[in-house]
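Annotators were shown the component list below and the corresponding predicted structure, then asked to write short factual statements about the assembly.
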Amino acid sequence: MPTHELEDQLRSTLARAAADFEHPDQARQRLLQRDYHPRRENLRLAAGITAGAALAVGLAAVITAVAHGPASKAAPLAAPALRTRLLAAIDTASGDILYAKGGPAPDGGTWQSPAYPQPGQKVHVRTLGLGPDGTAFKDEEESFAMPSGNDSYTSNLDQGGLQLSGTILTVNHVRHVWGEWHSTFVLGFALDAAGIRAEIANGQFKVVGPAELHGQQAVQLEINVPPSNEAPPHVTAARLWVDATTYLPMQQYVRMSNGEQNVTDYTFLPPTAENLAKLRPRIPADYTRVGRTQVTGPKPKTAK
Amino acid sequence: MDWVSDAASKRQFEGFAAEASDSLLRTGYLMTGDVREAEDLVQETFLRVARRWNRVRSMDHPAAYARRILINLVLDEAGRRSRQQAELGPQDAGIDAADESATRALREVDDFAEFRWALARLPARQRAVLVLRYWEDLPVAEVADVLGCSAGTVTSTASRAAARLAQALTRSGLPSTGPATRPS
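Structure shown to annotators:
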C-alpha cells in the first residue's frame, strides 16, 4: 500500500490536473443540450454485413462525422468513439422490431423481433413475399430461441446461416391452407443485422466519410471483405450507411461474386401492440389448417 | 425500452446529468488526457444511463453507476486496443514501489500537461485505480468493486501505478506503452 504521504500527494496532484480542464462549462453545456432519449419510431436503420463475410480490418483513425444530438455540430470523431456510438445505438434499438425491405426479396419484407436478440431470447421472424401485383405468395413466421455462444451470429452465418430449432407457421395462399409445426431449420439473411452488430463490435470496418441518404445525413462505412476461397456466389463488397445523428444503421449494399447486387433498407419499429402484430402472418378465415406436408409439400395431383 | 418518456422522468434524468456531468467530465479527462475524448465518454455514459433510467433512478447512487459505466468504457476500449496491437506494455516486474521517490516526483510536478501525458501512459487499469482511489476518493473496497478485483489488488496496483507514474515523470527510460502523444 502506498504511504500516506504518497497518497496525499497523489490526491493533490490529480486534483490539480483535473482542475486544469479547459472550458468545462462549455463541455457541460454541450452535453446537457444533447438528446439522450432513445431514438423513435420510423427512424431508418440499417446494417451492412451479410452471410459469408469473414472480415478483418481495423478502424480508420479519425473521421469527420456529425456528433450526436440535435444541438451538435460537425466535428472530428475518433473511430473508437464512433464504434462505441454505433454499438450503443444498436443496443438501444435491440428490443425493437427490425423491418428489412429489399435485398433478395424486394417486395414484402421481413420483420424480426427483437432486432438484436440475446442468447436464449425468444425470436420471431416473419417473411412476407409479395408478387408484382401485391398478392402474397409467401407468408411465414419462424419462432425460436436464440442460440447461446458469443460467435453464434458470425460463425454460423459464415457457414450459410444459423442452425435453429423452433416453430414454423406458414400460410399457403395458393392452396388456401396454413400449418404450424416444430422443426429444425436454417435462418440466413434474416439475422444479418445481428451479424452486422458483431462485425462492428469487432471493429471490422473502415469509415468512408459523411454521406446523404434519403435526405438524411449519414456516415458511410465500408466492410472489408477478404478474398474468399468459397465456391461462388460469395460476398465481394459490403457497405453500410448509418444515421449521422442516431448512429443507427440505415442501409446496406452487398455485391456478390456473380455480379448480383442487393440493397436493403432497415426500419426499427417500437414494440407496440400494433407493430408486434406485424410479426404474425395473416390467416384468412376461410383457410384450412393442415399438416406440414400439405402446406409445403408438392401440390397433390388432382384426378382428371 | 427502459426510458420513460413522461416529463417527470425526463426532468429527473436532466437533473441527474446536470449534477453528474462535471465530475464525470473530469474523471474522463484524467482517464484519457483529452478534453474531447472525455466529452465523448460522458456522452456515451449518459446514453447508456438514459436507456436504463427507470432502473438507475431508483438506485441509491446513480452517479456511482454512471462512473462505473465510464470507467468500463475506457477499460473496454483499452482491452480492445491491446488485443489488436501486438505491442504489449512492459511488465511490472522490476518496478519497485519506491514511494519516496514517487512522492518527490509528484511534488515537483508543475506542468500538468506533462502529468496527464504520464498518466495516459499507464495501463488503463492502473490509471483507473489512481483516478478512482485518489481523484474520486473512493474507498479501496469500492474501487475493487468497480474494477472487479480484490482490495489487495487495488492497493498493490496503486503502488505500482504510482511508481510507474513517477518513473515516467522523471523520464527514467520506460518504453512507450500506449497511444498517448507527448505534449508539445
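Statements collected:
1. Chain B has two domains: 7-80, 85-172.
2. Chain B touches chain A through 59 residues (CB under 8 Å).
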